[in-house]
DNA sequence: CTGAAAGCGCTTACAG
DNA sequence: CTGAAAGCGCTTACAG
């Protein structure tokens, strides 16, 4: 059933070498021979074996996909799934397939990303960054395998990384509050160990200062990006002596949790101004619809693919890119200027 | 840097064959030799080449993932992403990695799932079913490569499939309407070519009949599973001479669209009873929270993995499984009995 | 324009 | 308990 090059060669009455040259588009093969062989390959549905090819060539046309870190970098994470989806499409158009490493056996001490990449001989890989990244990621990044990081800073000899300009994320939120007449803002961050959360907090503080806005220290609290933590932190904020009216939560889920907390306290949600982050589907559907900062998932996925391709082809070496976020204004900040 | 078995053998002062036996856990190797070689492999981070191994062995420990059909079966589809996520975890625990085929080059006439599976020599594959499935899927399913289908009926010699009991999906919805005192129900289906939509419609009609409920023919309409189509179809329903008060939409997004249509018409949403399907995140957050029929994504993904494993090991041949859905009662059907 | 031969990194009877 | 040798399905100088 499954044919080999040898059988095709015999059928065509030529040597293996000739068939191989046709497969690999060498131009020193006679037209008639070529046509005959091509027809035969087509007829028998012949496809050269990946294993044999990759054993002798260096190229595999396979990209490894790694979700690094124990938290927030999962296959079904709503942000990353969009990024990876676009990445997959873009790489797919170039003929690459994606190999997703499972790390369920990772407690086994000898598991190691570099080894696995070498085992499969992938042409390159994409690393999705979560929190508490395994040290073995670094061995991979320092190797000569091209790597592109998303939301993780990679500094290997053939690596790059890409992420949203998180400073700008906060800038947009703070600016929008400022233009809405808010003068005091609370901040609900993610885990304190999170690179993303830290960048956004830094941007938040700087920008608030630049606009002369107040950000009392006890109005800066931390959740874990999920809804319940937003609910809990908002309740804490509402217990303070002075309570905030403007809240920037660095994930939509936390913002939604915060809205729920406000309602559950019997307060009027219309008297609060809330901004989230991500623009998940639910953001449009909560009451009131949530103003949010959207990351350009599409661009991130697409650029990650382009950069990785350039890295693989040796067109570039180290590189990094920040992608601009967008402000999406909805009613949770009380008005509808430029609503999308 | 990247070692071969030959180098390890030389370092250890034994033959390749001996090293190979150690890698493959043959038990006829001396303890001391084994330990020495193992230590060496560890020290040098040696990992046998996938290509070389798979060339000579039949097993690859790689599973192909195929999103078949042009519609509704995407990498980032909210339902399938959960299913595949659990599938990945379960297979991962067994040491399998997942290879996602890209089908961006698919217009190229010679693309063919069977060929690609053979090319990579995958141990088996999972096929996610959408609409308008490519005929080439059938060649794969009829081959001797084990296949497990999700939301697609597969009848190959070594294949199985799994999906929610769609008849039961409708049964739960109809029953809930019946118990809420509704006596006339409208139905918003998906594309008419959709297997899932057809099963649900069939179940809906049968069960409504069994309960003696009215389902006027012009109250049975079709969208495309997305929000806007629900909005549009609901508007059509509201133009009828007699308009429905109870609506079963076979996706949450369409249900949410329908709710929006009702509100936009200036009608009181509280006078309608609406049931969706899927239990997406937004279902909890719309006003009023949406009653829905939840599919057990986790179980589907897990069972798909178990079945595929059994298929690969030859423990079973053809098989199929229906998974029970759950009714999640929220306020869109007017009361809160047994709310989750 | 075509083919013989070596080699890619492994595994597996087989012989000792 | 260990190793020499053939073979898995390809590609690539090289010679003709």
From TrEMBL, chains A, B:
Coiled coil: none
UniProt GO molecular function: DNA-binding transcription factor activity; transcription cis-regulatory region binding
The keyword DNA-binding belongs to this UniProt entry's keyword annotation: yes
UniProtKB keywords: DNA-binding, Transcription, Transcription regulation
All residue ranges annotated as the HTH lacI-type domain in the record: 3-57
Domain HTH cro/C1-type per the UniProt entry, residue ranges: 2-25
Matching PANTHER family: HTH-TYPE TRANSCRIPTIONAL REGULATOR GALS (PTHR30146:SF109), LACI-RELATED TRANSCRIPTIONAL REPRESSOR (PTHR30146)
Protein name (database record): Transcriptional regulator, LacI family
